[in-house]
Amino acid sequence: MKKKIMAAIAAGLITLGSFGVSDAASREEVAAINVQTASDFQFWNEDSPTKAKIVEFVEDVTNPYSKNYIPPEDRIATFDMDGTFYCETAPIYFQEAMFLHRVLEDKNYTAPKKYLDLAKKIKPKYYNKEKLTPAEDKLHLEGLTAVYAGMTDEEYRAYVRNFMNDNETGLSNLKRGEAFYLPMVEIISYLTNNDFQVYIDSACGVSTTRELVNGVIPIRFDRILGTDFNYTSTNMGKEKAVNHFYDRYKEKIVISGNFFRENAKTAKIFSILNQIGKRPVLAFGNSGGDSGMLEYTLQNNKYRSMSFFVICDDTERELGNLKRAKSDTELALKRGWNPISMHDEFKTIYGDNVRRIN
């Protein structure tokens, strides 16, 4: 059955709803999504204004006879990850949920008491949609790196892979590693197939993001910008990295556990400047943390440009919050970002039988 589903998606012959999956689309099925022309879209409603805008934009800027033509080398598109093309609502971000798992459930790890006490305190708050205190939020942010101190990057990514097999919280028939918004993956595929250079510009950690999208989303690792771990060498001690001679026979690079460099809001612009070197012509986000990227794309751009804002307003197929959705839509319209309604525009999100269960 799986092989038939894969073949159908790859050929672009049928819609997700027509082959009746009992679970979410698997990672292999997500990877098989291939949108080259406007007629290949399967997961957007026919009357979707977003799909129409994207298709019109791409056809315009890739037409060498158009006044808005953009050379391939300047077709830069940036995407946030969590909440933009991957779930962030179940009930929290992937790496925050993994912190709780690491501290409370990992039998091979003994967490420092302060993180154990914190995890026990904040877990019910997350599930009850209660805000953390500033002190709790600060300690949690610290813990997101501290509990992995001493791991190599390969060991950390293996940990991410293992956690991806857990079921998402609050949604049926969905594993964490499958929680991609199928319509948004189609947009990424469509842009890639039309010679856009697609980047992820996320507040999620770089190593986490790389492992989540590896083999699923057609974006190269060197085009993933995100929050950075601080690393150290097992022999470096207090010596500065710029002064340390690394001996490949006696040491290895590991996560230091120190606070990471967060990639959010205006910091996303700095990542674009430092790692891309060109202003995007398309940007996709879903929260205030993406504001810098969205605004920078529209500011004094020498090319035609657009920013899009995913609105989580679906309370049956996703863990949408209508109050936040309303304020997010108002913000998007005020700032000139194109709102994308998951409820109104997505024919499916993860697969037809993924539903809210709480």
How many helices?
Answer: 13
Number of domains: 2
Number of strand segments: 8
Sheet with most strands: strand arrangement = 3-2-1-6-7-8
Helix content: 25-40%
Q: What percentage of amino acids are in beta strands?
A: 5-15%
Identify the overall geometry. globular
Distance between the termini: 30 Å
Unreliable runs, pLDDT <50, ≥5 residues? 1-22
Major sheet details = 6 strands, parallel
Could you tell me the radius of gyration in angstroms?
21 Å
- The SSE order reads HHHEHHHHHEHEEEHEHEHEH
CATH topology of the largest domain: Rossmann fold
Taking all residues together, what is the mean pLDDT?
A: 93
- The helix/strand class is alpha/beta
CATH superfamily of the largest domain, please?
HAD superfamily/HAD-like
CATH architecture of the largest domain: 3-Layer(aba) Sandwich
What is this structure's SSE topology?
Layout: H1 2-11, H2 27-31, H3 49-61, E1 76-79, H4 94-104, H5 113-127, H6 134-146, H7 153-163, H8 182-193, E2 197-205, H9 206-213, E3 224-227, E4 231-233, E5 253-255, H10 266-276, E6 282-285, H11 291-298, E7 306-311, H12 322-335, E8 338-341, H13 342-345
Parallel strand pairs: 1-2, 1-6, 2-3, 6-7, 7-8
Antiparallel strand pairs: 4-5
Helix pairs in contact: 4-5, 5-6, 7-9, 10-11
